[in-house]
Amino acid sequence: MSKPLTISATVMLQLHVIREQRERVLQGLKIRNAKEEDLLRVDQVIALDDQRKEIQTFLDESKAQRNRLSAEIGGLFKQGKREEAETIRTQVTGLKEEIATKEDELKAIQQKLSEGLLQLPNIPHDSVPAGSTDDDNEIHQNWEEPLPTLSEEALPHWELAKKYNVFDLELGTKIAGSGFPVFRGKGARLQRALISFFLDEAAKAGFEEIVPPLLVNEDTARATGQLPDKEGQMYYVERDNLYLIPTAEVPITNIFRDTIVAKKDLPIKLTGYTPCFRREAGSYGAHVRGLNRVHQFDKIEIVQIAHPKESYAVLNHMLDHISSLLNKLELPFRILRLCGGDLGFTSALTFDFEVYSAAQKRWLEVSSASNFETFQSNRLKLRFREEEGAKPQLAHTLNASALALARIIAALLENNQTPEGIVIPKVLRTYTGFDIID
RNA sequence: GGAGGAGUGGCAGAGCGGUUGAAUGCACCGGUCUUGAAAACCGGCAUGGGUGAUGAGCCCAUCGGGGGUUCGAAUCCCUCCUCCUCCGCCA
């Protein structure tokens, strides 16, 4: 087992920000539409930290005293001064008890402190609009051209899937349960083509490809913020105490847990294709039909570790990369800037990409690009040095889907349907080996 | 899954109850020397926390994780994890 995230390390780094920028933290919580109790938690945490420091100081002094006396005993024994040694020994015994009591106190406080801290979300970026639901998200970049219109007979993708044998949800239900599509034939091939296309594009953009574990341990899930916030969202293998990944972000970002990277290596760019598993408990109904929301889907994730001064430029590059993918696939899309209420727990700024699915006449989220600033790296203990010999400081982490497959396929099927069949976008044809699904 | 062995600083590798945060070597950084480089020599080289001014200094903690014995633990005990060797099983 690697070193677990020690409470103190996690606590300290984040805490100094809370202390020094208390107003900003509170302001951020308001933008996130946080509850009153969350606002109160800020001061609770600071108060707990005050207590922690007080006990820490006392404990350090007691221990210093103990260490001094113990060394003395050692010296006296060497000189053969038995009796003097014995006197001091009884003295230390009293100290010991005191230390033990204080240590229990300290542990209890640290426990509370870390629980409190784990419940505080990231501070939103200044540009994040206030708001409570996805209705309050801001359109960052709209689709300027006319949206595709289909004929009266146009079918939603789940009907098309049946017609052309692209995927089979009933079959997935038989084998696993609802929300586990079985792709087959040209559908399976299309899936593989998209994966290859996205990975190749990422490679061209300078991302190193990773094939990570699909199951992760508790430390890993905690470090990227899935625990405790999204525990219910993940499949959990109790017997082995492992979680199925909800996104490749989790194992890939954790590559850097507990590391100090070289500044010259920044930004570090990684990509990986993985299936993603999400319980999506409680979401049923018409809006989640077909591939709109499933328990298992394929996704290519891009992850970057960036210098704090460059992380927002890096985020822009990510937006450009994703835009270019969607343009090449000839899919209409728009970019949203998430409002405080819709912003993920760990994120400072998130842009969502939505493609237009013409038969459903709906926008479907296919990517989410976020800058976590130091929120994840604090938990990860991912640092770099500004210069040789300088104190390590937290790096910024970012990630984005580039892209999530299931909904891309939904949109491709719907938008590209013709009386002859589903037309494959040009860029994919060398990957699929066919031009049309008929 | 069974039996045995091992986990020490960036790496290699000492230490196996008393100034050991930890010898030594390599790597790395700074310097002397050199026309330059190499070699040689000198010096530096962990992380987190407390105190303090986000300085110096002092102090605490950390030798796979957790717990215990002891005045005192890298060193002894328990437990978990990981790795190696052998056997078994296997895509």
Written overview of the protein:
The protein is of the alpha+beta class and about 450 residues long. It has two domains: about 5-30 and about 35-120, Serine-tRNA synthetase, tRNA binding domain (Helix Hairpins); about 135-435, 2-Layer Sandwich (BirA Bifunctional Protein, domain 2), CATH 3.30.930.10. About 45% of the residues lie in helices and about 20% in strands. It has helices at about 5-20, 20-30, 35-80, 80-120, 155-165, 170-175, 185-205, 220-225, 250-255, 310-330, 375-380, 405-415, 425-430, and strands spanning about 140, 165-170, 180-185, 210, 215, 235, 240-245, 260, 270-275, 295-305, 335, 350-355, 360-375, 380-385, 390-395, 395-405, 415-420, 420-425, 435. The strands form five sheets. An eight-stranded mixed beta sheet has the order 1-11-12-13-16-10-9-4. β12 and β13 (about 360-375) form a beta hairpin. It starts with 6 loop residues before the first helix and ends with a strand. The chain binds one RNA strand of 91 nucleotides through α1, α3 and α4.
